[in-house]
Amino acid sequence: MRVASAVTAGLGLVGLLAGGVSAADRPETPEEQHAQLSWGRCSADQKELNEAGAQCAEVPVPLDYANPHGRTIKIAISRIKAKSPGERRGILLSNPGGPGGTGLATTLALRPALKDVADRYDLIGFDPRFLGESTPVTCGKAPRPTPPAETTTPRRDFEDSVRSARDTARRCQEHGDNAELLPHASTRNVARDMDAIRAALGERKLSYYGISYGADLGAVYTQLFPRRADRVVLDSSTDPAATQYELFQRSGAPAEAALAPQVRSDIREVLARAERHPVPVKGQRLNAPLLRLIFKQLVQHEEHDPQLVSVVSDLKRAAAGEQIEPGPALDGFLDLLSSPELADSMAGGAIFMCGDGGWPAGGWPKDPATYWKNMQRSRATQPVFGPYVNGMIAPCAFWDGEPREPGTKIDNAVPLLMLQARYDNNVPYEGALALHQRLKGSRLITADIRSHGVYARGTEGLTPVPCADRAVNTYLRDGKLPAADFTCSGTDPKTEATR
């Protein structure tokens, strides 16, 4: 469901902070790590994979790569074998973003966009460690949320969010054996797990497509395992020098710019009401922070999104006192907001945001007053999204202990393909340019659209970018990177230097 993926995407934006390559990152040969995997039918929850004839297995990996003979965990993987054995290239992995996104079926979902290219690869999906079916970590049962009162204030809403973040941090770190597991939830370890998957499958190299956080993960993989990277595509990436909190703050301006004038006016009217009286819809009361979360997810994909227009229209009527029957888009969000799926996704994002390098964890300020000050200051220029991106206090602010490792300093010449929308609704274009400069072997395709995500948009019901899709498929099929960076404008590529 699109609304589900929208809420889980973009919640955690990972900055790739300074760090080196440790002995645990040195690639081993497939023979040294090659495991006998037990392939079988995927779990009953993986209906699409089973219908496609996929098989699933579990790859044992070290919990702590610095202690390779210690405790192991299991990484769940799926495989759809190449249909053209004579033209088989190898394996293609993918990651859908987040962090916190599960991915067993993600590579399968790319198959319509890949077209004939899909036949040349074993399509490999995987759930990152501690998510989905990969030795899952839970944060214990969250307390039943107290419905917003009929009246509120921005300060009261903020204090509620502080209490919730503090409680999430406590539950995550105290539940079960999480104290042993969580220090090893990091992007570096997910990249190592990807290499363990490669080795377990007996492959010399792996190819990869990652979007959003998945693009940042791919960049980390190329840094840690440059000789193991085959054909790598990074879609919608971030500034490798920024902290997570900085990235979240920077996402406000492009989101604000994505709002058409009339939609912005209607949203501000709804928010002004909700900051005093939460909007009642279908037995729920939606306060301003919840509404900003919904609007932020809906604005990520493209300008003039009919779902955004529909949701704003419904909420405007409800804020005016009408008893409404919400349309499908708003109804989907209402169901998701009250479901365990959202809580699990939020927790999954938190454990990686808090486990990645940098101190405080991921660069999240420890003092709640910092968030409140930044939130109030942002209202002048970003009245819709400023309070959300500056005031969303992550559980990392209350996380105990430092990350085990620093982040990863990106600086390599691995050949790869980058994609970025010039008017990305979630992360500024300048961040992708910064990563592009550090990935010296990369080529960048810029799409002149307002969106978050460039490749395979047609499979999501969004307006496709045909020349970007063709470039990705040509690269994955033939290994040919573009001779130079270029811009996709409509259906015709226009050469443009972007370095």
Quick recap:
With 499 residues, the chain is α/β, with parallel strands linked by helices. It folds into 2 domains: 16-137 and 184-242 and 407-495, Alpha/Beta hydrolase fold, catalytic domain (Rossmann fold, 3-Layer(aba) Sandwich); 154-180 and 246-398, no CATH class.
Q: Would you give an account of this structure?
A:
- The protein is α/β, with parallel strands linked by helices and 499 residues long.
- It has 2 domains: 16-137 and 184-242 and 407-495, Alpha/Beta hydrolase fold, catalytic domain (Rossmann fold, 3-Layer(aba) Sandwich), CATH 3.40.50; 154-180 and 246-398, no CATH class.
- The protein is built from 20 helices and 12 strands.
- The chain has helices spanning 2-8, 30-33, 47-51, 106-109, 111-114, 154-174, 178-181, 187-200, 213-224, 244-250, 252-257, 261-274, 288-298, 306-319, 328-337, 340-355, 368-378, 386-391, 429-438, 466-478; strands at residues 55-62, 72-80, 90-95, 121-126, 206-211, 229-235, 279-281, 284-286, 416-421, 442-447, 486-489, 492-495.
- A 10-stranded mixed β-sheet has the order 1-2-4-3-5-6-9-10-11-12, sandwiched between helices. A two-stranded antiparallel sheet has the order 7-8.
- A hairpin with a 2-residue loop joins strand 11 and strand 12.
- The longest helix is centred in the N-terminal third of the chain and has 21 residues, at 154-174.
- The two termini are 37 Å apart.
- Mean pLDDT is 89; it is low at 1-24, 26-32 and 491-499.
